């Protein structure tokens, strides 16, 4: 767990974030899953936070992120879900719409928990184990 020094403060902020596909449909596979990982990685760079670990099952995604005190979690989630949904629908829309109705890729809710240095390794192992056997 990295401790970062800012101007007048020191911080180490990690979050475990999880969200699901609308209706828990199994759509995060093949090229969609590959493209989603690429998109989320780019979104994190564009918004100046790090994805420390990321894995997904066919109907949900887990990630461990590292961010600054200036980041607001709802904005991070909004960026990741909104941009990824728009771009995945643009590229894979016909296939996704056949499994989802209403044009929505993501369930509107999400889970977020803070991570301490005592639990970071456990969270990383949990995220890595999320792929179905």
UniProtKB/TrEMBL annotation:
It comes from the Bacteria. Pfam families: Y1_Tnp. SUPFAM superfamilies: Transposase IS200-like (SSF143422). Residues 10-130 form the Transposase IS200-like domain. InterPro entries: Transposase_17, Transposase_17_sf. This is IS200/IS605 family transposase. It comes from Holdemanella hominis. The gene is tnpA.
């Amino acid at each position: 767990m990295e401790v970062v020094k800012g101007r007048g403060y020191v911080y180490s902020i990690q979050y475990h974030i999880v969200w699901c596909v609308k209706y828990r449909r199994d759509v995060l596979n093949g090229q969609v899953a590959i493209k989603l990982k690429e998109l989320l990685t780019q979104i994190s760079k564009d918004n100046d936070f790090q994805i420390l670990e990321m894995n997904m099952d066919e109907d949900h995604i887990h990630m461990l992120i590292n961010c600054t005190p200036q980041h607001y979690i709802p904005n991070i989630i909004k960026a990741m879900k909104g941009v990824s949904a728009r771009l995945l629908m643009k590229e894979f829309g016909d296939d996704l719409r056949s499994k989802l109705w209403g044009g929505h890729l993501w369930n509107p809710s999400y889970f977020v928990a803070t991570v301490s240095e005592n639990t970071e390794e456990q969270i990383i192992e949990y995220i890595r184990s999320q792929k179905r056997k």
